[in-house]
Amino acid sequence: MSIKKFMVFDQENVHEYNIVVEETDKGVEYSLFMSESDQWNEHAKGDLVLSMINDGDGVIFSKKLKKLDYGDLFAVRLLLNLENFMDENPRNQEKSKIVEEKIVVEL
Fold it and tell me: Could you give phi then psi for residue 101, rounded to 5 degrees?
């Protein structure tokens, strides 16, 4: 079993989050924690924000995500982006091409 740790920095190079990736008997677990940086309240520093397990059949989140506030949405994006980055399947590493459809309306 292996453990990898990642740090997430914002655009001003402030250390915001830590992500721990661990191989478990349930699958690969991705855990997002608040950093120990000063932008967080003392009681929140180091707290678990969200975790997910990729069990090889899908992903399971640590909390129900029926409706997301923007903080939860950001946490989900971070975890999914890292999971996609680390995926060893070449097919899953391919970037999808997304093209905006131009709709012309003549009046």
Answer: -80, 125
Nearest-CA neighbor of 49 among 18, 28, 23, 24? Answer: 18
Query: How far is residue 76's CA from residue 61's CA, in Å, rounded to a whole number?
Result: 9
Using left for φ > 0, alpha for ψ between -120 and 50, and beta otherwise, residue 46 falls in: left
What is the Cα–Cα distance from 35 to 17, expressed in whole angstroms? 5
Is the model's pTM score more than 0.70? yes
Residue 27 DSSP symbol: E
CA dihedral 74, 83, 66, 45 (to 10 degrees): -50
What is the pLDDT at residue 36?
92
How confident is the model at residue 103, as a pLDDT? 75
Residue 80, token pair as written in the block: 């999914």
- Residue 77's CB: how many other CB atoms inside 10 A? 11
Give the helix/strand (H/E) hosting 77.
helix 70-86
